[in-house]
Amino acid sequence: MLSSMSNLMLLMTLGSVSGDLTPEVFSDLATLLSSCEQVESADIPSRLKELSRVIRKFRTDFTQLTIEEARSYLEQNDEEPGRLYREFIHCHGHRCIKEFDMLSVPWQLDPEPLIITLQHAVATPEPASVESTEPILSTPLNLWRRMALRLLVPWTK
């Protein structure tokens, strides 16, 4: 329960900048939470990070693909990116962005939000630590939000 609350606080901190929960905000959240290991739902950001790293290696033009082309590539590819994507959908396809909203559609049925998030993650270089993550986040952060993230990110782990 504590990790859910701290994840929600992180999401609110990032989302309050743009006023909405955009794919960039979720990509930034995945970047920040990618090193969490004790919570099952924390497996999502770490798998997304690994998947985006592998896609970046195998398909340099992934961010230029349409949603349909990217989906087709990931669903039909026999190389590592396709295999990792299918494993991700198998393990976490029942989830989605805003999964507590009863009208939200899980990634298995509509992977478009996931593909958009992956494209943003592929376009973002890999961070080494929380401090080094801040400069590469898509969400612009003022001093108070940076301080909040420095407190919240370790708390989610």
From TrEMBL:
InterPro entries: PEP_Utilizing_Enz
Key words of the record: Signal
UniProt superkingdom: Eukaryota
Segments forming a coiled coil: none
Keyword Protein transport set for record: no
Signal sequence coordinates: 1-19
Keyword Signal listed: yes
Protein name from the UniProt record: Putative conserved secreted protein
Organism (species): Ixodes ricinus
Lineage: Eukaryota, Metazoa, Ecdysozoa, Arthropoda, Chelicerata
